[in-house]
Design brief:
Distance between the termini: 16 Å
Shape: elongated
Number of strands: 0
Helix content: over 70%
Radius of gyration: 15 Å
Number of helices: 5
Number of domains: 1
Structural class: mainly alpha
Mean pLDDT: 91
Strand content: under 5%
Order of helices and strands: HHHHH
Length: 116
């Protein structure tokens, strides 16, 4: 069942989705253009595949019709980022905050997904 969203809710959803897509586009371009960024965690050989998956997931998240798939894929990606941060004794604050923003954006666009 699809619910009708208010104009302000639609705008907020698009802004969150657009900002997250820009963040992931920036992140994936860094992986492609600067391979040494991924070398220190041992993932330099996988950087292109990771970047393609990252930007593809972000594009799926951007559009309302594929937002659910994008939400699940970005959540999985951020779970990996949190795990990588934990394994290297880095702060998990930023990847956790991005994960929360992903779910807030999904809820703003699709409140019917969550039944409380």
């Amino acid at each position: 069942m699809e619910t009708s969203l208010s104009t302000s809710r639609k705008i907020i959803g698009w802004v969150i989705a657009g900002l997250l897509t820009a963040l992931y586009a920036y992140s994936s371009s860094g992986k492609i253009l600067h391979p040494q960024m991924m070398d220190h965690v041992g993932l330099a050989n996988w950087r292109v595949l990771i970047a393609i998956g990252e930007i593809g997931s972000a594009l799926l998240y951007l559009f309302p019709r594929t937002n659910l798939i994008g939400t699940l894929l970005l959540s999985s990606y951020m779970g990996g980022a949190i795990l990588l941060s934990m394994a290297n004794n880095w702060s998990i604050l930023v990847p956790s905050a991005v994960l929360i923003i992903i779910w807030v954006g999904a809820f703003v666009r699709h409140p019917d997904w969550v039944k409380l």
